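Possible regression after last week's pipeline update?

I re-ran a chain I had predicted before the update to compare outputs. Posting the input and the new output here so someone can diff against the archived version. Not blocking, just want to make sure nothing changed silently.
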Amino acid sequence: MMMMMKVCCCSSLFSHIVRVLLFSIILLGVLINPSWGLIKLPANETVPAVIVFGDSIMDTGNNNGLKTLVKCDFAPYGQNFKGRIPTGRFGDGKVPSDLIAEELGIKEYVPAYLDPNLSPNDLPTGVCFASGGSGYDPMTPKIVSVISFEEQLRMFKEYIGKLKAKVGAKRTKFILDNAIFLVVAGSDDIANTYFTIRIRKLQYDVPAYTDLMIQGASDFIKDIYGLGARRIGVFSAPPIGCVPSQRTLGGGILRQCAEEYNEAALMFNSKLASTIDSLMPKLSNSRLVYVDIYNPLLDLIVNPQNYGFEEVDKGCCGTGALEVAVLCNPLTPPCEDPSKHIFWDSYHPSEAAYKALVPNLLKKYVSSFFF
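New output (post-update):
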């Protein structure tokens, strides 16, 4: 009897130890990779890769080797990135492409396709083709000498060839069928090409110009679909009139939100949502998702206290009114705490703002990528 009690006690103690160890392992995993368990995919669904096109919101370093003023591979950019490295991301830390891949449990960072240190092992889980300063209007990237959507498409074709060489044709098809493709553009078209430089404003009114942008977006969606993309998320334009630089340039002496810019963004967004709805039935086996970033970011700006932010209309870098890209440099030191600022520089949100936005966006839209 005594022997049986000892066995039972040992068994109970062993079970308890096992439970504690399992809990510790799970807890350690959450601490190491906070994305574990945050985004639940539908049963029997997988996302092997995140593949990104667009502009500076998503760019993870493709502009570094370009002869352009639209670059940021220098301090103080990257001051909150791992190792405090200015990687070419337009912010103080991670950008949405990184956070989305992390939230989905794919990897911590999405490398730039043009990164000289890009490894073949990076290809199966996705890369970034986005280029800061690019847009749907072909003139937008030309003005600032960055990578156009046409060139991003060419790089994507090249990527597919490299991927096939790495994992074979069958696995490549699986990756393209199941990856989430993200397309983010429009703000540079509206803010820079139309309202600031004003070249297009001499040729088009806002309805006509947004039609031109929509044609570029529609053609690009069809192009990447033709190359194998099936799950495609297309982001709306943001409330571009409320970013610090546009307040300075178009918001008057009080630096209010430039409503004319926001109205153009809203018109474009309405047309983009309709275009995506009309395209999906024509592109068989596709899941096209319109991702509204306008309203979530505007809510951050209008109700900063709800998210722990204190500074709304100025970036953290320098004065915060105009500094961006080469104007945000070691001679324009940043604020003490970027996490209190919605914007890192005069154009791009801070990592803290992205972290406030991305998880909620994924929770809202991720199920839309699956049948």
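Follow-up from reviewer: compared with the archived run. The mean pLDDT is 91. Marking as no regression found.
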